Automatic annotation (TrEMBL):
Pfam families: DJ-1_PfpI (PF01965). It comes from Vibrio ulleungensis. It comes from the Bacteria. This is DJ-1/PfpI family protein. Residues 3-169 form the DJ-1/PfpI domain.
């Protein structure tokens, strides 16, 4: 059965992060739903660098759907909209209660998860500009950080977006399958995916 991923977007979402998530997870043949969190219900929003991003639906249209992962791209403007969305927060809380993976990158771990103290005991990372929002005992200076106990995946920024997306695939489908997705993308050797095909989960 195909995995189902929710990727919210809003005005100010970081384009590299959003598109990398969408593209890579579609390559994994997951069902990817891109939902607008725009307060006015607009499906097309302008990203943090002025690039239009288009959602398939409004968040309210999928509020009752179940997903295997909710993955939040960063970008300050987008993360602030996520932070202020009562509906998204309720979905995130229910998703967490159900024991499913939550993922966030760049500003979103700080401006959404930390702001609302959704993971007070979890290890996490975020964009270095926001590291002061995370307790030093919980901060991890890693490009991608997975807290298995809290089912929380976080990452630092646009440059780590591909690693972040691949880690979602590893979590859902194992290392061998992740390698089958990463190899045709000609990922950089320092992403350490060249040996994933030799491992099995």
């Amino acid at each position: 059965m195909s995995k189902s991923i929710l990727i919210p977007i809003a005005a100010g979402s970081e384009e590299i992060e959003a598109i990398t998530l969408i593209d890579t997870l579609i390559r994994a043949q997951y069902k990817v739903t891109v939902a607008s969190v725009d307060p006015e219900g607009e499906l097309q929003v302008i990203g943090s660098r002025g690039i239009p991003l288009t959602a398939q639906c409004r968040l309210v249209d999928v509020a009752d759907d179940e997903f295997d992962v909710i993955a939040l791209p960063g970008g300050i403007g987008g993360a602030e909209t996520f932070r202020d969305s009562t509906l998204l927060l309720e979905m995130v809380k229910q998703h967490h209660y159900d024991g499913k993976l939550l993922a966030a990158i760049c500003a979103s771990p700080a401006l959404v998860f930390q702001h609302h103290q959704l993971f007070p005991n979890a290890l996490m990372t975020c964009h270095p500009a926001f590291r002061d929002t995370i307790s030093p005992s919980k901060w991890r200076d890693k490009r991608v950080t997975l807290d298995v106990n809290h089912k929380l995946l976080t990452s630092q920024g646009p440059g780590s977006a591909l690693e972040f997306a691949i880690e979602i695939i590893i979590y859902l489908s194992g290392k061998a399958f992740a390698w089958s997705v990463a190899a045709p993308m000609v990922t950089l050797p320092n992403l350490n995916y060249q040996d994933l095909g030799k491992s099995r989960v």
